Amino acid sequence: MRKEYTKVKRIESSIIEIENVADVTYNAVVSVHALGMDFVGQVVKIDDETISIEVFGNTQDFSLDDIVISFEEKPLAIPLNEKILGRTFDGLARPIDNGGEIYSEKNYSVEGEPLNPVAREYPRDFIQTGISAIDTLTTLIRGQKLPIFSGYGLSHNQIAAQIVRQAKLKTDEDFAFVFAAMGIKKDEAMFFEDAFNKAGVRDKVVMYQNLADSPIMERLIAPKCALTAAEYLAYEKGYHVLVIITDMTSYSEALREVSSIRQEVPSRKGYPGYLYSDLATLYERAGMIRDVDGSVTLIPILTMPNDDITHPVPDLTGYITEGQIVIDRSLYNKGIYPPINVLPSLSRLMKDGIGEGYTRADHEDLMNQIYESYSHVGEVRNIAQIVGEDDLSDIDKKYLEFGDEFEKRFLSQQPTENRELEESLDLGWEILKILPRTELHRVSPENLDKFIGN
């Protein structure tokens, strides 16, 4: 029989402190009975004989005299089987879709299983998203972690839903999808539900939702539950799993709030000093394991406060992940969808996942040339604002034409438009023909002759 404790030292927000407790481990699950209901908590701090417990629920009406606490000798674990596909859960992996409970012989720790880094396999397989700016210039690779950096009010949700609808491997193998939302509004959750249903992929999607009015502590567990489900589907059932998590800024702000309640020393902008390592424990769960058929590919979405890419959350995320896709407000205001700014965007793994045998032999040449030419467009536009368009050289006017056509025809596409990679590559070469051949410095003579001509 488990020992029960009733003498609580302090309650502050969702943190309960209790004294004179022995043989309790960090991250252990805690059962909290209060207000006639049962709540789940977790040990988050052990200081001599004082134990701090984080309760995943609303504790504002708790009384010091109305709490019964008992500890379990294990971390938080959730039941998993293949029937989770098509289901919707809250941030603690409890069903909220009236589909019944999930039963399994084994419960899986939300902290994940230890993974030997030597067992990891280097990602190389191209994932086609049907979005030209991603497939051609910021290529997504199976097993990669590639975040979307966005801003409040931009179209990152539509882009994420489009990727789920259209993502496919070169081998035409299907994906299973795991979607986790933290701190989103109900209408955003309904948008994703509706998008998945209309695309006919709802039966392949597992959803974990922590809404804006849900307990903030659930926000810290939701992505762990989602990644645990992804690891189960990938490494035990052999699925290729694409995980989308939104919004990592909401997660980080919840972490900051909890850190403040714990009275920890703050770091940049009030975030805890361990924000980097905490984010890394989530992001590094993506990948591939040697001799295992499945894989976990991760696309975390984060909204940058004031569109500031140097903010701690995007800044640290960029160090941990393998690139980023940057959503640009100026392109969004021009009516371009998807408003992906390709210049600050990059995919660090694409160099080993494109070219002969992976995508197409000319892919790298095209990518390098578009980056060079489009970066020069920005310089010419700045000069045009000073001296006027009429006083530009003929070549500079060609760059302006190239920039406009690139944004209108290559970057811009319909939210339902699914472009094949070959179509995107051919379109890129067609737009490069606007520039004189002498301006194409990053293309081999063979590809110049083949795609540009004399």
TrEMBL record:
<dbReference type="InterPro" id="IPR020003">
    <property type="entry name" value="ATPase_a/bsu_AS"/>
</dbReference>
<keyword id="KW-0406">Ion transport</keyword>
<keyword id="KW-0375">Hydrogen ion transport</keyword>
<dbReference type="GO" id="GO:0046933">
    <property type="term" value="F:proton-transporting ATP synthase activity, rotational mechanism"/>
</dbReference>
<dbReference type="InterPro" id="IPR055190">
    <property type="entry name" value="ATP-synt_VA_C"/>
</dbReference>
<protein>
    <recommendedName>
        <fullName>V-type ATP synthase beta chain</fullName>
    </recommendedName>
</protein>
<dbReference type="Pfam" id="PF22919">
    <property type="entry name" value="ATP-synt_VA_C"/>
</dbReference>
<dbReference type="GO" id="GO:0005524">
    <property type="term" value="F:ATP binding"/>
</dbReference>
<comment type="function">
    <text>Produces ATP from ADP in the presence of a proton gradient across the membrane. The V-type beta chain is a regulatory subunit.</text>
</comment>
<keyword id="KW-0066">ATP synthesis</keyword>
<dbReference type="Pfam" id="PF00006">
    <property type="entry name" value="ATP-synt_ab"/>
</dbReference>
<dbReference type="InterPro" id="IPR027417">
    <property type="entry name" value="P-loop_NTPase"/>
</dbReference>
<comment type="similarity">
    <text>Belongs to the ATPase alpha/beta chains family.</text>
</comment>
<keyword id="KW-0813">Transport</keyword>
<dbReference type="GO" id="GO:0042777">
    <property type="term" value="P:proton motive force-driven plasma membrane ATP synthesis"/>
</dbReference>
<dbReference type="InterPro" id="IPR000194">
    <property type="entry name" value="ATPase_F1/V1/A1_a/bsu_nucl-bd"/>
</dbReference>
<feature type="domain" description="ATP synthase A/B type C-terminal">
    <location>
        <begin position="352"/>
        <end position="451"/>
    </location>
</feature>
<dbReference type="InterPro" id="IPR022879">
    <property type="entry name" value="V-ATPase_su_B/beta"/>
</dbReference>
<feature type="domain" description="ATPase F1/V1/A1 complex alpha/beta subunit nucleotide-binding">
    <location>
        <begin position="130"/>
        <end position="347"/>
    </location>
</feature>
